[in-house]
């Protein structure tokens, strides 16, 4: 099975430094194969015969043991990432300007009452839809200007999230 692992908070603002070459080497010593990384923000694509939860545990344990990093790891089948792109409710806007589209990958589906309350903050320029364990977020004001950050979504929804922009998400389906 081909998987995508998304590490939260890697190489951001000088925190949680993790060279991708060292990570690839360490993962090469596990049961994973065909391991590749994409850019410096903690994106791993690999093959494994294990279930996604087992893969997440292996990566989380490896990050702690080898790099002394205790960070969230979200693992999804690569085909699920493709399905998420296809299900994007903001496809028309994304085609017009993909730099304003991102996806929040959640470690679990948030409680529906929290989703309902959070979605009340959605507006024309910062619009989002939460479906199962994914946030589809079209941010027309730009991600540097919004108050709806990854941390904001985590606080509102009570779950762990890691965000990826449209181009990164698309690339992860192609590797």
From TrEMBL:
Pfam families: DUF1697 (PF08002). The lineage of its organism: Bacteria, Pseudomonadati, Bacteroidota, Flavobacteriia, Flavobacteriales. It comes from Nonlabens xylanidelens. This is Uncharacterized protein (DUF1697 family). PANTHER family: BLL4334 PROTEIN (PTHR36439), DUF1697 DOMAIN-CONTAINING PROTEIN (PTHR36439:SF1).
